């Protein structure tokens, strides 16, 4: 599919928001639709591509994901699935948020899916007050309004404070 | 959605970087807002994340790298589209309390419920039970419970917690309200009914909403309501069949007339009668036999008990189906042989009762190869169940289609009577020969008492099980005939208009029975 690329071993350099540079093989970078579009639209790979929205730690994770998925043959779906779950295991909310932001920005659908799903799985059994804090949502309800909404959905609150 | 919103960027023109990388932007794929994403990537100079003052959330992890001191915040659009749409309905109902904005996202936007539905389609579905007590006329409670989701490995027992659906106060119930019950679950919705009143309920959100009254037929002797989905016009239809012991047309008095009434949700303001009483198909209601709904088709017994009738919800037509031939002597079909869903097809179980008598179930599966031309065939299947199922007094409830294969559901009556607490339900995977025990929690009406066994025996017969897909679409979007509830959302109204236009086009059947 990447027929425009003559040399398969070509590498490109990505620069994180905090100035760290990452040398990436082209086929790994192609996991990102954003980078793919850039390469297709004739950006020379000799340049350093700055990613001002992604810090080094997140970028390292993202590229780890891309490398695994670019290198794995399509027949090893099971192996990739276990890699994905291991990859996100023990990751805290901040890191997951960063991953979602990076995957959304770099347009890496698979990574966006698993990271967002992980966030959803983590919060689904949490009380809503805690969820409010996690997402820094301002509570614009009056106590009465909140109580009314809660009463309407009483069944969903069984077992919750 | 605006790309800038997704990225949480200020809504101001971006200063292009002075670096050499202010390269030819015209080559970049442009976003609708005219600013290519690549420009963002190349411009630099913007803070990567929005720092938020205040204490850190419980997430922790402050020690790592560059996020120290700054709290990561996901832009609201990403939270809504990527995270909230992946949550189960129960969590969403709870998170309506997070903020007004979250509540309106969850409840008012058709596009949100559409993405949610797409993300929760078949593979994440659970099963569903419903039961309704019949013994006490004053009791108008309907219990439902969901099976553990199919993704959980089902080892050991799982306790199912029943939920009580309580229709609005039955002050103006008709005289015929002794006929009450619940319809099949169709795409996550079902209806409760009592006499001429009916309620639409959503399994996922537990929302319940009354529908327009149907005719009050005082001398009716049997009633049933059936819910179905017409997939071409994308409409839910509720069909009411009501049996009159006799009726008068002009000067003639005839016996056993069936009144058919249909309500198309979001379209009909009131119930309509598609057929004259003399033309209506003679569906057998007297014996309270079950009907089975699959993918826009409803199968029920003809009153005579020797043919089946298949009703098509899309074009509201009927087709007659003859049961399998009485081949090997002892096989007898008709008059109430158990009708059920098996691997996505209508099927009949040999014999007259649900109760297992031996460890082999003989099932005849109806293949509607070419429904439009009326061709069909019956395929014989023998299912072996574990030997102790008949010993435990198991009754066959039905077959639950799951992505991993059908699960046959059985209840253990003998065990229940001995324990007097909860009714055990077994889920049996006939392909693998494995079964697991699920336990239904205590239902109010089932508290141990002297009559408990006799009440429950009847109720167990009414156990039904469904597979459903989560759908958080508010019922007001389906029931447009309550004017006060058409809400503020202009999109809803638009959608309805569109739907109506579509309806005019054609009503040919495009659904096929899934495999």
Automatic annotation (TrEMBL), chain A:
The protein's UniProt keywords, in alphabetical order, are:
Ubl conjugation pathway
Task: Specify whether Mitochondrion is a keyword of the entry.
Answer: no
Q: Where are the transmembrane segments?
A: none
Q: Which CDD domains match?
A: BTB_POZ_SKP1 (cd18322)
Residue intervals of the SKP1 component dimerisation domain: 109-156
A GO BP entry is: protein ubiquitination
Pathway in which this enzyme or protein is active = Protein modification; protein ubiquitination
SUPFAM superfamilies associated with the record: POZ domain, Skp1 dimerisation domain-like
Q: Does the keyword Hydrolase apply?
A: no
Read off the Pfam families from this record.
Skp1 (PF01466), Skp1_POZ (PF03931)
Ranges where the SKP1 component POZ domain occurs = 11-70
Subunit structure, interactors included: Part of a SCF (SKP1-cullin-F-box) protein ligase complex.
Q: Which family does it belong to?
A: Belongs to the SKP1 family.
Its annotated function is as follows: Involved in ubiquitination and subsequent proteasomal degradation of target proteins. Together with CUL1, RBX1 and a F-box protein, it forms a SCF E3 ubiquitin ligase complex. The functional specificity of this complex depends on the type of F-box protein. In the SCF complex, it serves as an adapter that links the F-box protein to CUL1.
Q: What protein does this entry describe?
A: SKP1-like protein
What is the species of this protein? Answer: Rhododendron griersonianum
TrEMBL record, chain B:
Q: Where is this region: Disordered?
A: 1-34, 495-515
Q: Where is the composition biased (Basic residues)?
A: 495-508
Q: Where is the F-box associated beta-propeller type domain?
A: 169-389
The protein's matches in SUPFAM superfamilies, at most eight in alphabetical order, are given as: F-box domain
Q: Which Pfam families match?
A: F-box (PF00646), FBA_3 (PF08268)
Domain F-box: start-end pairs: 82-110
Could you tell me which NCBIfam families the record lists for this protein? F_box_assoc_1
Q: What is this protein called?
A: F-box domain-containing protein
Organism source for this protein?
Rhododendron griersonianum
